[in-house]
Design goal:
Elements lengths: L1 H4 L4 E5 L2 E4 L26 E2 L8 E14 L3 E13 L14 E4 L4 E4 L7 E6 L5 E4 L2 E4 L5 E9 L4 E12 L2 E6 L6 E7 L6 E7 L8 E4 L6 E5 L6 E9 L2 E10 L1
Parallel strand pairs: 3-12, 6-12
Antiparallel strand pairs: 1-2, 4-5, 7-10, 8-9, 8-11, 11-12, 13-14, 14-17, 15-16, 15-18, 18-19
């Protein structure tokens, strides 16, 4: 549908569905329309609950004309439909996509909407407003940090509201410390992005006078073996530091 996809005044959603952007007239040009043929056009009008106190009545016009301009009669209009849209009074509702999430790369997550107190449609979109799913919640395994948009539409009068939820994907993390507890040696499995400056810090949790042990990490490996023979017994914090920032931490018990 090039007459839709190449039009900057609309946002194509799915299955011949599009949303009009802005307040200027929208022109769909060069649409194939064979003689003696009818096409159904469905219009839906939505109002945002955050603007519920604004104007209550609107005029809307859908006009059709032959694409060829006539030098004598000018535009060759073939028909039109005119609408008056009256906004009903109602109590507002608000979309809630939940709190932002933090996960590690490869981890699955479920994002969930809080249901409103009436029948509604719950649509989810990615940060580019591409449709993903219809439903209260959906599960995904994102590869990158992304923001997801929740659209809640009332079935009764098509009022709608939006909210967003951000899923932060941590690509630098400690995967496993084994064995734990230990009094001999441990292996720390980790994941770090290529090209980062990373190190492991091991800090005694209850006795800060004990020196911190630092181990620079190699981008070409994903595990580190550490001899614990010189470590005092107790609890330690194993921190992963990337580019000067602590991005993950786990507890190690030396006994």
């Amino acid at each position: 549908m090039p007459y839709l996809e190449q039009n900057n005044s609309i946002k194509v959603k799915e299955n011949y569905t599009f949303t009009i952007i802005g307040n200027d007239p929208v022109h769909l040009n060069n649409i194939p329309f064979p003689a003696n043929t009818r096409f159904e056009l469905k219009l839906f009008f939505n109002f945002l609950t955050e603007r519920i106190q604004e104007q209550n009545s609107y005029k809307y016009h859908v006009l059709q004309k032959n694409s060829e301009f006539d030098s004598i009669v000018g535009d060759r209009w073939t028909g039109g439909v005119h609408f008056t849209i009256n906004k009903s009074a109602r109590n507002p509702f608000y979309a809630d996509a939940g709190t932002d999430k933090n996960i590690t790369l490869g981890e699955g997550i479920t994002v969930s909407a809080t249901e409103i107190d009436e029948e509604a449609i719950y649509n989810w979109y990615d940060s580019d407003e591409n449709f993903i799913y219809t439903g209260i919640d959906f599960s995904l395994v994102p590869n990158n940090t992304s923001e997801y948009i929740l659209e809640v539409i009332s079935v009764a009068d098509r009022f709608k509201d939006y909210d967003t939820v951000k899923v932060v994907v941590n690509k630098n993390y400690i995967e496993l410390i084994s064995p734990n507890p230990s009094n001999d040696q441990i292996q720390i499995d980790y994941q770090i992005e290529t090209g980062v400056d990373a190190l492991i810090m091991i800090i005694h949790t209850n006795n800060l006078s004990i020196p911190t042990n630092n181990y620079n990490l190699d981008n070409n490996t994903n595990n580190l073996t550490i001899d614990l023979s010189n470590f005092s017994n107790g609890a330690y914090t194993v921190a992963l530091v990337v580019n000067g920032n602590v991005v993950d931490a786990k507890t190690l018990i030396v006994n």
